[in-house]
Write a structure and sequence with these properties.
Elements lengths: L1 H15 L24 H11 L4 E2 L4 E2 L3 E2 L1 H10 L9 H4 L4 E3 L11 E6 L2 E10 L2 E6 L4 E6 L6 H5 E6 L24
């Protein structure tokens, strides 16, 4: 009950945030900065991700509650928070800022990228407690699993993490668009 009382106002605040779209690969800022009071949004991202558990896997599908592929799942979850993401895992892997592959540095809502060589072929959403949610082609559904253990095949496929939500603990957002100054009446 308490979480619901906090989450709903936080979601309302997100509606006030400017809609973000895909950034150029040269731009390394997070897609959206959230004031300190909305950092609970990360819990909401985890909750929306987990709400899709059990949805069937289908390549190229984006059908909330029914079917997803990995990038479709990520795209849908982030769209709930007014983030418009590109369609493929490779494109999504270029958004936000890079986060070290250190599990102690990951935050709920971070994107985890997987692939072969330099090619990104899969994406999931970190939900906290060492786990992430993704649409698994092997399990044919959206599942929650632990992060890959060091030395395993999955650990070799884990390429990195990307942060779409700023974690700046200050109230200032230096890269946010400047708000226009109010114009006095009659000038």
């Amino acid at each position: 009950m308490y979480r619901a009382a906090i989450a709903l106002p936080l979601l309302g605040l997100l509606c006030l945030a400017p809609q973000a779209s895909a950034q150029s690969s040269a731009d390394t800022r997070p897609i959206i900065a959230l004031p300190r009071m909305t950092l609970g949004t990360r819990d909401s991202v985890a909750a929306v991700s987990r709400a899709q558990l059990g949805a069937h896997y289908r390549f190229g599908a984006v059908q909330p509650g029914h079917r997803f592929d990995c990038s479709g799942l990520v795209r849908y979850v982030m769209s709930v928070f007014n983030l418009t993401l590109p369609r493929t895992a490779a494109e999504q892997a270029r958004l936000g800022v890079a986060v070290p592959r250190d599990t102690s540095r990951l935050l709920p809502g971070d994107l985890l990228t997987f692939g072969y060589g330099k090619r990104i072929t899969h994406v999931g959403i970190y939900v906290g407690d060492g786990k992430y949610v993704h649409a698994s082609s092997h399990k044919h559904s959206v599942i929650e699993v632990p992060l890959p253990a060091p030395g395993t095949r999955q650990a070799k496929l884990w390429k990195g993490a990307r942060r779409l939500f700023d974690t700046d603990e200050t109230d200032s957002i230096p890269w946010a668009p400047a708000r226009p100054e109010p114009v006095a009446a009659g000038t």
